[in-house]
Amino acid sequence: MKSCSQRLSLSIALAAALGLASFAAPSATLAQTGAQRPEARPSDPPVLRRNLRGILGGVEMTAADSMHQQIVDRLDFDSYKELLRGLTEFGDREQGTPRNAAALDWIEDRLRGWGYETERVHYMYTPRNSETAEPREEVFATKVGGARPDEMYILGAHMDGRGGGEAAIDDGSGTALVMEIARVLASSDVHSDRSIRLALWNNEETGLDGARAYVEQRAGLQGVEDPPGSGRYPEPRWLGMIQHDMMMWDHGNPVTYDQALDADVDVEFQLNSAMADQSALLGIALINANRMHASDYPAVLSNAMSNTDSTPFMDLVPAVSLRENRRLYETGNRANPHWHQPTDLFETFSDADFMLGFNAAQTTLGAVAKLAGIRIGG
Ligand SMILES: [Zn+2]
């Protein structure tokens, strides 16, 4: 992305050229203070409905692309926001707390309400400063493939958080994204050739423990029909893992008041992984789906995926993560002042922020529609 200071210098130059003697640099204070972003939101979010669609240069969508677009169009912005708001009612959902357990129940209730048979992964976690392992749980649901129930893509986000706020960004925004996709896929007229698993990891904040437990317990079960002859595959073979973690805030760095004008969805794979080449191809599938199906924000691909639940998968299966910023270069350099803070609240964010998360949902669903073979009707 371009730096905010570049834009600022341009504005100053423009103001000087226009002879605006009283020009005041609007972002200077914020740029200097970073974490002390004012609490009030702008009343008129500027980055909405940019209508990126139609930039294909007049090339008509194929019939298949149009079908994928119809599926993506079933994603609902207000439903995404409402799912996120529901998650934030449980506070930061820190692992091991009653609010985490209650949020897990709530997520499972929603998935069941849409018609899924849910399952839980049970594992043991030893809290820091303790020598006693304690039981923990996480939930997933599966859209079973009609033609290839033995193969699947995994879409993930972590439902636990920290920081004493509401963990809206980290990672209510990704959890609501996966749930909104689950809602769309649950419709009885939506069919998929391959299976799609919607996984809401727990214990991400303690070191990816929930996702690690899933990989440890289930990697060896891939593609096994159980019972034999039943046509049922408790663990379809993994074709790809797509993680969503911190999805809404790309205000540049130094941090600006509004969503940056060049805000985008960052797709990352890990160059230092056994499946790097295949993961890059999965990343390109997402970039292409974004260009085809996202309404307001573009996506870019880079190669330093880190600190997220796709990491335990990356040597076994093509794995990517979607984020508001690149984890190491941007998030790690405090691009999001609300990260793990009490200010990570639903009310902190504007529709321009929510829309970035929503565009990531469009990106993933568009890509998976093509990869898994999803269609509406027969
Ligand atoms: Zn996170």
Please explain how this structure is put together.
The chain is α/β, with parallel strands linked by helices. The chain folds into 2 domains: 1-32, no CATH class; 52-376, Zn peptidases (Aminopeptidase). 33% of the residues lie in helices and 17% in strands. The chain has helices at 4-17, 28-33, 63-72, 77-88, 98-113, 168-185, 209-218, 276-293, 351-372; strands spanning 118-125, 134-143, 148-158, 190-192, 194-201, 237-244, 265-268, 299-302, 319-323, 374-376. It has an 8-stranded mixed sheet, with helices on both faces. It has a two-stranded antiparallel sheet with strand order 4-10. A hairpin with an 8-residue loop joins strand 1 and strand 2 (134-143). The longest helix has 22 residues, at 351-372. It is globular. Residues 1-47 have low confidence and may be disordered. Residues 158, 170-171, 204, 245-246 line the site of zinc ion.
Shape: globular
Q: What ligands does this structure carry?
A: zinc ion
CATH fold type of the largest domain: Aminopeptidase
Order of helices and strands: HHHHHEEEHEEHEEHEEHE
Strand order in space, largest sheet: 1-2-5-3-6-9-7-8
Instruction: Characterize the largest beta sheet: strand count, sense, and whether it forms a barrel.
Output: 8 strands, mixed
- Identify low-pLDDT runs: 1-47
CATH class of the largest domain reads Alpha Beta
CATH homologous superfamily annotation of the largest domain: Zn peptidases
Strands, count: 10
Look at the helices and sheets and give the structural class: alpha/beta
How many helices? The count is: 9
Q: How many separate domains make up the residues?
A: 2
Helicity range: 25-40%
Span between N and C termini? Answer: 43 Å
CATH architecture of the largest domain: 3-Layer(aba) Sandwich
- What is the arithmetic mean of pLDDT? 89
Over the alpha carbons, how many angstroms does the gyration radius reach? 21 Å
In terms of DSSP E residues, the strand content is: 15-25%
